[in-house]
Structure formats: C-alpha cells, structure tokens
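Researcher: Let's do a round of design. I'm pasting the structure tokens now; please hold your answer until I've finished.
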C-alpha cells in the first residue's frame, strides 16, 4: 500500500497500518512510515557495495564512529548499508549556506524573537539511538509498523538510526529541559522518487507548561496547550511563507493527543507542513512531570526547503556541485533555485516473480546500493497474479544524473547489476 506523500513533510496523510488484535487499524504517524505496511524479512546483507566508496569512520559531533560499529555483516538484524553509514555526520543542517541550514536558522530566528530565546537548541545529538528512545519512550506501540526492519535501519536489535527527532524528547525532559528545539538527520528505508531519500532532516519543538501558565485562563490545561501550539505554529508558517492561507487537520500520532497537521495553501494545493499535538501524559510522567502539560511538533526541513527554494529533486540537497551550492547564501531565505540543466532520463524495466518475503523497500535498497544518486525513481508499473498464484511485479527504474549525461553503456551496466543482485539477494525469479 503506497500512499504518496512527500517525505520531508513527514506528516501524515500517509497512513500506516497497525496490525492490532482487533484487525487492521490505520493511523497516521509520519508520511514515511511507510509505504509497505507489512512486516517482512530484512534485506539480506550486502557484502559488496557498488556505488559508494567504503568510508571506514565518520565523525559525529566530535565522536569518531567506526564503520564496523554500524555496518555489521555478522549480525542478521543489521540492515545499514555503506551508503547510509557515509551520511552519518554530514549534518547538512549545520551548514549556514545550505538550504537546510538556512531554513533551520530562519526557524531559530522566529523562536528567538518571539520567545526571548527561551527555547534551547540541540543540533548535534547522535542519530544512533536505542529502540527505547526511538519508539518506547514516545509510546510507539510494540506492533507498530515503523519498528519493522523494512522501515527502520537497525544497527542491532536494541539500536537504530533514529527515524525521527522525537527520539530525543524523553531524554531531554529527563535532563530537565522544558523548552527546546532538536534538529537532526533522520533515517528511513523507503521508496525512491523526487521527494523521498533515506536520509532527511527534521526539527522537533517541545514546550512544557506548569499550572500557573493555564490557571489564569479559564480553559483547561490541554486546551491551553493546544491553543498556544496553534498560535505558535501559525506564526512560524507566516514567518516562513508570508501571508498564506492555512488550515488545521485532525490526525493521529502515538505521542500526542489531540494531534494535528498544519496545511498551507501553496501553488493551488493544500500542503502538509508539519505534525504536532498535545503531548501524551505518559511521556511527561516518565520524566517525573506529574503536574504539567506540553505541546510538541515535528517538521521536515527538506519539504519546507523544496517549497521555499523551488528545489525539484531531494537528491540535490546532497550535491556538492558548485552550480547548486553557489546559489544559496547565509540568511537568504526563499531565493529561487535556477535549475542548471536537465539531463535526459533513461528508463529501464525489470520484471520478476516475487516471493512472500519481497518488499519494495528492499528492492529500492538494492537499486540505490548499485546506482546511488543516479536513480531518480522506482515505480511499480505492472502487478498481476497468475492462475498458479504466482505474483509478478514490473518496475520501471528511471536513471538520471543531476550533474551530467549518462551513457547507454553506463546505464546498461547498472541495470545488469540490478538484475543480478535482485535475483541473488531478494529471492525473486526474473522474467
Ligand atoms: N515524529 C513525527 C514524524 O516523524 C512528527 C511529529 C508529530 C513530531 C507530532 C511531534 C509531534 O513532536 O507532536 O512524523
């Protein structure tokens, strides 16, 4: 079940499926949680990585992390490829001249000027977190699909690459922080298209209230928090987008109740820009906050940047091509990106009989492992089951570089590797 959603919004018209005791229940969590709503076997470990140079260590906020600690061929739970390991520590959000950093700084400016710098900022917390931090602490149910190996990168059974910045809420509360913004890179196994990339950036906001904050008003504490939250985020949207039309949509997140999404009217369409809500009491109580309410929000920086800077393809954020990087300057919000070229795409189809363990995320990981950022999109274009009950999928792979023309030979070579590896690793039968 793929419901298209732009990843970096993250939120949530896209639904996920929770396999609950009373049947199939859908709820939204985050748009990238995820297309294939089934538990499935992990991608068999790749021994040979094709497109990426093997990086042996990365530096995250001054701490050196060795490849062997994160990419483990000997652990069947580990599904972190080298292409993902090499992204740890890149921290695009800390580059002031990068669109992601420019937006982060614009949001900081909004909070600094409206809340007298009360919001503390965290932006170099390690993306390697425990499953407790990523899921349990924020009340993600034990059978939530986002916990599957199909959706999340696992280092080992207790350790993941965070799939949202909400993973830091509880630890910061426990350490005594009450108003904060957490920005960071987050990781999700996903499909491939112009708006989905396995690494993207989020900002989490959190604000705790005490009884004296709502006692003065006549309304109850939850309503007080919800109203304050909406006022804050409407102001933020105006700060970023100008005088836009907005609307609130009720939704579901495991960590908030009530939960909302904010949509803005942009280029003749409603666009989700963030998810938020009043924090579940369970989260506050775990941190010893028995008499409080809080609000929280999470937003996807790529989504905002694609809209504000007119950036057409999410891969561009990772480009070091001067023709991209030189177009942005510190503090320059909303400069319109001028595409420097559009090289021709090359389409290749691949058909195979799938097995029960097949998932589209696993297939996409194989394609990315071989073609890296030369793959623009992977689309299911045909799907049928024959009389014997065998199911066939045909995928169209769009190869296109953003920086140069690809040669036929190069693309044929990539496609032939995809065919080999898909057969070898995914237990499918090529047609
Ligand atoms: N963690 C959510 C996601 O990744 C976004 C989110 C929604 C964060 C609601 C929040 C929140 O703090 O209250 O999609």
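Researcher: That's everything. Go ahead.
Model: Designed sequence:
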């Amino acid at each position: 079940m793929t419901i298209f959603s732009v990843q970096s919004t993250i939120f949530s018209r896209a639904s996920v499926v929770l396999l609950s005791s009373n049947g199939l229940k859908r709820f939204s969590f985050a748009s990238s949680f995820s297309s294939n709503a089934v538990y499935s076997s992990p991608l068999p470990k790749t021994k040979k990585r094709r497109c990426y140079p093997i990086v042996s260590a990365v530096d995250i906020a001054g701490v050196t992390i060795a490849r062997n600690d994160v990419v483990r061929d000997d652990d069947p739970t580990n599904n972190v490829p080298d292409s993902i390991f090499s992204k740890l520590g890149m921290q695009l959000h800390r580059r002031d001249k990068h669109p992601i950093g420019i937006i982060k700084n614009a949001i900081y400016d909004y909070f600094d000027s409206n809340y007298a710098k009360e919001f503390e900022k965290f932006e170099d917390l390690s993306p390697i977190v425990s499953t407790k931090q990523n899921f349990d602490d924020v009340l993600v149910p034990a059978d939530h699909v986002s916990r599957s190996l199909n959706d999340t990168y696992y280092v080992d059974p207790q350790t993941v690459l965070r799939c949202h910045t909400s993973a830091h809420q509880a630890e910061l509360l426990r350490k005594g922080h009450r108003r904060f913004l957490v920005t960071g890179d987050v990781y999700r196994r996903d499909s491939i298209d112009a708006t989905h990339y396995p690494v993207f950036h989020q900002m989490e906001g959190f604000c705790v209230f005490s009884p004296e904050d709502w006692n003065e008003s006549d309304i109850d504490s939850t309503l007080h928090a919800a109203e304050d939250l909406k006022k804050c985020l409407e102001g933020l949207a105006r700060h970023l987008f100008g005088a836009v039309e907005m609307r609130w949509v009720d939704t579901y997140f495991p960590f908030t109740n009530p939960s909302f999404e904010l949509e803005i009217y942009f280029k003749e369409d409603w666009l989700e820009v963030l998810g938020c809500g009043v924090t579940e009491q369970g989260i506050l109580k775990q941190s010893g906050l028995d008499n409080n309410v809080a609000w929280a929000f999470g937003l996807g920086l790529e989504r905002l940047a694609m809209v504000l800077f007119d950036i057409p393809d999410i891969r561009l954020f990772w480009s070091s091509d001067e023709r991209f990087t030189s177009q942005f300057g510190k503090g320059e919000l909303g400069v319109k990106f001028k595409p420097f070229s559009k090289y021709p795409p090359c389409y290749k189809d691949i058909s195979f009989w799938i097995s029960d363990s097949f998932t589209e995320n696993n297939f996409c990981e194989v394609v990315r492992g071989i073609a890296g950022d030369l793959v623009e999109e992977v689309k299911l274009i045909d799907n049928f089951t024959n009389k014997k009950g065998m199911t066939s999928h045909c995928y169209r792979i769009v190869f296109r570089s953003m920086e140069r023309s690809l040669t036929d030979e190069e693309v044929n070579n990539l496609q032939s590797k995809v065919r080999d590896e898909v057969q070898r690793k995914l237990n499918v039968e090529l047609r």
